[in-house]
Amino acid sequence: MEALGVWFAVAVFAGLVPLASAFPQSPDAPKRDGHPIHVVRATDRTSVGGAEVFDLDEGDDAEKIWIRTVTALHPETEVVQRAKRFVADGGGRVEIGPGRYHTLLARAPGWYQLRELVDFERMRDDEVELVPDDPLKIEIVDGRGDPVPGAMVELYAPAMCGVEEDLNLDWRAASDRDGRVFFPHYSWWTNGSLFGRGYRLALAIPLRDPRRLPIGSRDDARAYEAPTLRWQIPALSKLRIEFPGSDAVPADRAISFELVGPMQRFGRPDRYASDHGKPVEVPTETGVPLRARFHWREQDPERPRAPDLLAFGDAHPIEGGCALLRVPVASDPVAVRVRPVRGDGSTCSARFDLSLRWVDRQGFRLCIPVHAIAADETGSLRFEWRRPRLDAGERPARLRVALRKVGWHDDDGDTTEPDDLVSREVDWPLGEALDVGTLTVPGSG
Question: Which domains does the chain have, with CATH numbers?
Fold first, then answer.
């Protein structure tokens, strides 16, 4: 339990576990076989007859409970699907399960409440307060003030300590024909819950300067009115992404990807996916530098988020224009050999990351990373490269092979590339083997 206490303190500091909630706590409450609760409105304390109460009985052992962030336990899906449903009587009262710890979702038309890690042994009363369930309305307009349909808004959580991947949460919505997006349960986010701290609403499109709206708890804990926000966004173009050779991907495996601007990070899981290889169009700010990361192969257990391909380029520079990125999915194996040596010509036995990259006809730079390859007994780096299967008209003339220091975290959200230690351009290989030759690694003696 001591370890749990330390974790709990850190979680409270990080804003993952509620301190003040709709369930005031007292350490001296006796154990009970069942737990009667009283559902009331937070605004005037009146009873809410007929309220739905969804109860996940977590049991009595706190050490066995996985404390989830609220968006991982999505109130409209997982709680409703997994919990036992109760209905409060005319006086707003209902009795739920006997376990000590519970997750509760209570709702009535226009009213809402969700709480996790409710400890019934520490409650000093039985009230569950419902807050008004009005959504936050966001109006998205362009530089002329006209509504922008189809702009994607998402719930955003920054990486813990800024060193891991951002978590792409499970709420995301596109603006309607009038440019409107409605973020649900706004008063719940902003009243009495620490879950909201650190979370933002953000535009889920590549931008130079991404705007993020904090939605954490407010100082006025009883201000329930949901405002209307007006977001003006820069001129947009589109990026059309096509997936030639997608028929080579098993039907049960997704083609997914991340696409971000220069000040945005890759997150997990991927935001975008192709429907069995169909093209995908994504709005982007005009001319913004783009970074993309693609997945379609079976994941490596050692590096589950390592990309199958990276792409770098620029969005279309004209408002309403459409750039094209073709991501070759089908591939053929090529046996690659590279021999790294020190300055004195002796074998360099260190491990290396490698990058094999080329520029396509549209000007995008495509890169296939290879991780942590060690030299064999001959002093050579040998590995299998999945050469993209390209038509003759799309095949580049040259391929650049580069050695890099081990440890570039291309699977942790970082969208930048490290410097090459040394690289060489070679003819695009057409056969089953590629011998890059000997590369002298600077600073290696």
Answer: 22-132 (2.60.40.1120), 136-232 (2.60.40.1120), 235-445 (no CATH)
